Amino acid sequence: MRERRLSALPSPEKLETRGTAVQKIRYPEEQMHRIRYTKLTERQIREKLDGAAAGPASASPLADVFAGKSIRVVTDAGPTLSYRFGSRNRLSVQENGGAVVEAGYGALALDRVALFSHMIPGTQRGYNVVIDQDTRLATVFEIWFSGYDDNREVQRQIHHGYVDEIGRPPPATRHAPTNRIEGCGFHWRQDTGIETLELYPSVIYSNFVELTRFGGELSFCAPSDYVKIDDERYAYSRVEAEFSGTFTLYVLDVNRVEQIGVRLGFDRLDELEYYLFTGRGEKLGRLAQFEPFGDVGDRIPLGAGAVPDRKGGRPVYRPAKTNPILTKAEVDAAVAANRVVFPEGRAMAGNKLPTSAYLVGKALTLRFDGGPAVEYRFDEPQELRWRHEGERTWHEERYEAWESAPNVLMFGHLLTGAPRHDCYEVVVDFDHALATCIHGTMGTPYVANEAAAETWFGVIEMEGLTPPKYRRHRFTDELVGRALTWNYSPGLTSMHLYSTPHSLSWIIFLENGSGGMEWSGPASYVKIREDMYLAYWLEEACNGTLGTILINLRTMHDCGMSYHCGPDGLRLSAIGAHSRDAGRFDVAKHFRIAAA
Amino acid sequence: MSDITTRRAFFSTAGAALAAPLALDAVEARPSSGTETAVLDRLARLEDLQAVAAVTAAFARRLHAGEPEAVAAVSAATPNRAPLEALRRLSLEAPATVEPIVLGADGSTAAASIPCTAELETPLPPECTLVEMARAQGGGIVRRLAHGAVELLYEKRAGAWRVASAVFVPSTIDAA
Prior knowledge:
Number of strands of chain B: 6
Number of strands of chain A: 39
Oligomer: heterodimer
Distance between the termini of chain B: 26 Å
Shape of chain A: elongated
CATH topology of chain B: Nuclear Transport Factor 2, Chain: A
Structural class of chain B: alpha+beta
Distance between the termini of chain A: 30 Å
Order of helices and strands of chain B: HHHEEEEHEE
Shape of chain B: elongated
Strand content of chain A: over 45%
Largest sheet of chain B: 6 strands, mixed
Largest sheet of chain A: 11 strands, mixed
Largest interface: A-B, 32 and 20 residues
Radius of gyration of chain B: 19 Å
Helix content of chain A: under 10%
Structural class of chain A: mainly beta
CATH class of the largest domain in chain A: Mainly Beta
CATH superfamily of the largest domain in chain A: Calycin beta-barrel core domain
Radius of gyration of chain A: 27 Å
């Protein structure tokens, strides 16, 4: 039986698609980080929320656990909410003993844990309440719109408390923040038909892949909350900050791998989504945790100034606010004013491999399929000459090379004077006479100081080497789902989560080793040989960097480069870090193209 | 920055004032016009030493307790007084030992030092997204342990002694 008000449910028709009727996967015209979400006014939001006053839609039957009952939810430092549930979709509520307000609501139950959601009609506020009916413990997610610069971004404040019962003392314990599901990941299939991959590599952020809504090419990150109900059940919420601003909250049972939840926000067409959902899932694996033993995450060790001093304040990474966007003319001027190639003392290169002189004295041509043939003369450990085949003039560049494994090197350099301020970042394997180049250029159709990349596969032509005719390095999904930590220098450690075949997330650790801030960008992975991969990622809609690393899983060390342009000029700098294996999610199967 | 400038200026002044530091043992060598004056002078200096010792003990207790305001009042500098990284935490042995208090010749300044260990924070340069994000969650710093002493300068105003400046000067800094 489908519930009422289905208009607020997601529907495939709302998903923008350029595909035809036979297309199996609905790719959006623009990925989430490229959508220019409307800056809705408070008035527009108020008007759109009229549709929420009747309560959330639901594809599954609503639960009647509260129908006919009255309860009083007392929170420790927040509101006291007195409810009378007239039916399974109408309630009245008094906030802190104030006026009685009638509202529509919806409830779902997952065994003994119930979740109900309602807005306060005529306002932009609402409550989502999670109640453990056995323990009487409750957690209230108070939510509101128009609480941030971008009005559509839902704000939330979490209040822990209990259901008050006359004659019974308050419970001694509370639900609490937790790291007990940090490292978990799930594939969820909701009753709406929506499928997602949701990964929790952090205690304050999460990573989600919209398999249905966005075709599953990329993963995205959102500030998130994790609340422990008991060892089996948790509440999770996220706000898609910097994107649609949509709020998602669900209770999940890690034994049954089931969820009940609510989604509230405005989609890319600015239509209200307010619905409850149920879902069944599959556990995808578990990453390692790096907190000290005994730390269960009931206190999140954020540093000074990390939490804005306002209701609902939380650390949110807002790349659009921190990275200046340049015009093409500004890029050209910045590059003309300053080009920095392999500077010393960079924090990202604190643990870099030694610079190799392996290439010195070599004369070779890298011939790329469908790309150029590039002739090289390596004159010194940091000086080379190059020219495209057919050119008469040599170009001198500063380069750096690292030997990741015997006879396997990575080197890179800028192409001085190239109109797009190009760089070549190359892996050469002399054992197999193979070469792969990440060709970086500055500028995308979206941002002039944002790097783009293309991958060229090819061979090494050199005296003494006979290159293969057909064999090449190749794209791979062998890294997909894996997580590796990277310690670049004292105080600078991150974790890569190779979340999809085409995206990579990076997580910054908190002081106690918990996962903290997280962000994500398009990426690509090439297999060089067993246990050796070339990866790049693009910090799109972020600071525009192209990061390229050669990962050696035998030495657990990488080498690579960062290519970036900002107001201070163009920079190609080294990257080098020590790695630890942080585990793997079994997600690659969700991205493989299946037979019809 | 203005705080550092002020402290540096004070050091400069205090440095001159303390150029010929006068420890208690040296009081008797000071010329005086008569026995009574000498005794009164000695008594005044004993009272000053006692007062400075009390101020020092109180300040050391606050540092030992990790009182944020007391720790915040201590800056960090190299031995040649170049500003050093932010000082996060000071560890004093209990009870804190205090090097001999030295009274200035002008009778209105004094100096002492308290050996201790400090945790210094060096902000990572804002060179990449990772640092940006680390800073957004209150991190992006390198912490190192340093061993040295808090060097205290005192001034006497309206008859009362107070700590005018407190600077942690490391003798050794551990690797990060």
